[in-house]
Structures are given as structure tokens and as C-alpha cells.
Design brief:
Elements lengths: L10 H12 L4 E4 L6 H11 L4 E5 L6 H5 E7 L5 E7 L1 H8 L2 E5 L13 H4 L4 E3 L6 E3 L5 E6 L11 H4 L3 E4 L5 H11 L5 H19 L10 H10 L5 H8 L7 H14 L1
Parallel strand pairs: 1-8, 1-9, 2-5, 5-8
Antiparallel strand pairs: 3-4, 6-7
Helix pairs in contact: 8-11, 9-10
GO molecular function, one term: ATP hydrolysis activity
Keywords: ATP-binding, Nucleotide-binding
Protein name: AAA+ ATPase domain-containing protein
Length: 263
């Protein structure tokens, strides 16, 4: 399947991320939901041709989700033995792969110090479940993403933040957004694309003012909307791709008003 590349009018975003990676720096991508942080990490992974292991943080994230867990397996002799199944952090370290930690500020602060040695010059970890000391193979890199001011996020621990270099990833708009829609969706009607971009500007403004959630104005939602608009009227496409995901009636009404203004 063809992979879509990360696109941004600010060429330095990708260029700097690539340079930082080659210096083996831990990269923290900072920006709103749906601004393309995961796409940027995936494109970096392709560019350096190193696979990526992903951790999605939440308040339920624990050491097992990061490092792995013990389980009972039956061996070739038919006997049962306790084995350790490596989690994404240990897999990435052992293979010399990229570790991508999404929404790192959604995790409980007490869960992440386990990664301190992984994220500093030592690039090593003592597995608390087995006692094994794991040193990362060359090629191992860490990219994390953070949504600032998002519901449920916590301020990032300073000791952790100090282990990263930061890249601000902002929303794309205008001609660049038009290019993304044309390359990543099925829609090629120039006039409709222009209207969708203007509609998205209104959504962004409402999102900045706190009238609607960031997710409603994300690139992901926009690609879905563009695809759906090729098979149904635009008003219904917006309803299916954006409005029906929202719980709050005021948010839904704000978007219905924006549809009437733009289409």
C-alpha cells in the first residue's frame, strides 16, 4: 500500500526532525490533535528505513504496557514454563528500532520514570520483571508526541521533558492543505476543496475559542469528510465525519452554523 508522506509548508519541520534523529536525539513533537504528528513520525521511520513500535499513552498505561509481561507457555517437551513477552519499549531497544510514544502527557507521571535510563546517554534499562539489563542496539530512537492543553493531559514532568529536543508541529492550511486533500483523499473537485478549506478555517477558529474540540478540526476528520463528499451531499458528509462524533449539542450546532455559512 502506498504510504502518504508528511507535508508541511515549513520545510524545516521535517528537515530538523530528520537531522535530530541522525544525531540520536529524543524528539518531542508538540502540537494540536490532528496536526500530523504521527504522520511525521511514520514518514521519518520510512526515510531512515527503520521500523517503528508505538505506545499509546493513557491514564491506564502501566509498566507492563511499556516493557512487557510474564506468561506461561508450553515448550517443545510439553512442559509449561514462565516466559517474558517483550513490550514495545524492549522490542524497539533490542531490534534497534524507533519507539514512538503518542500522547506522552496522558500517562500518569509515576509510570514514565522507568524510561529515564532509556532516554538518556545510557540508552539502557533493567527489566524489573526479569532482572535483565537491556542496552539499546544502534538505530534505536525515541519520538514522543504531546497534545498541549488537551482534556485529560497533565503537565509533563521537567526531568522527562529535559531529555527531549522539541519540534512544534502546527496545523497546515491554504495551498499545502489543498495538496494534502488531493493526495490523500478521493476528492478532486477544486471548487469543493476550496470550500472545505474555508470551512476548516472556521472550525479552527471555533476550536481556538473553545467552542468545539480540537479533534473536530483535525486533518484526519478533513480527509474523511473529503472522501465522503464524493459519495453523498456535503452536509451529510460533515454530519458523518464530524458532527456525529461530538457529544455536546452546542458544539454540534456551531458546526451546523458553519456548514450553512460555507456551503
Amino acid at each position: 500500500m502506498e504510504q502518504h508522506q508528511y507535508i508541511n509548508s515549513d520545510q524545516s519541520v521535517f528537515g530538523d526532525a530528520y537531522s535530530m534523529m541522525r544525531l540520536n536525539k529524543n524528539i518531542l513533537l508538540k502540537g494540536p490533535t490532528g496536526s500530523g504528528k504521527t504522520k511525521l513520525a511514520e514518514t521519518l521511520s520510512e526515510k531512515v528505513n527503520i521500523p517503528m513500535h508505538q505506545v499509546n499513552c493513557s491514564v491506564d498505561l502501566d509498566a507492563e504496557s511499556l516493557l512487557g509481561f510474564k506468561t506461561i507457555q508450553t515448550n517443545a517437551d510439553g512442559n509449561q514454563e514462565i516466559v517474558f513477552i517483550d513490550g514495545p519499549v524492549i522490542q524497539a531497544m533490542k531490534e534497534g528500532h524507533i519507539l514512538y510514544i503518542d500522547e506522552i502527557n496522558m500517562a500518569k507521571p509515576e509510570t514514565l520514570p522507568i524510561l529515564n535510563g532509556v532516554l538518556d546517554y545510557r540508552r539502557s534499562l533493567t527489566n524489573p520483571y526479569t532482572g535483565e539489563v537491556i542496552k539499546a542496539k544502534p538505530g534505536f530512537n525515541v519520538i514522543a508526541a504531546i497534545n498541549e492543553g488537551y482534556v485529560g493531559t497533565l503537565p509533563m514532568n521537567e526531568a522527562l521533558k529535559n531529555r527531549f529536543v522539541v519540534i512544534q508541529v502546527d496545523y497546515i492550511d491554504g495551498e499545502i492543505l489543498k495538496r494534502v486533500i488531493k493526495e490523500q483523499s478521493l476528492l478532486d473537485d477544486e471548487q469543493l476543496i476550496s470550500k472545505i478549506i474555508a470551512f476548516n478555517e472556521d472550525l479552527r477558529t471555533m476550536s481556538k475559542q473553545g467552542q468545539i474540540s480540537e479533534e473536530a478540526a483535525s486533518i484526519r476528520a478533513l480527509i474523511d469528510l473529503s472522501d465522503l463528499s464524493t459519495v453523498m451531499p456535503i452536509e451529510r458528509a460533515v454530519k458523518r465525519a464530524i458532527i456525529d462524533k461530538l457529544e455536546d449539542e452546542r458544539e454540534q450546532q456551531a458546526i451546523i452554523n458553519a456548514i450553512e455559512l460555507n456551503f
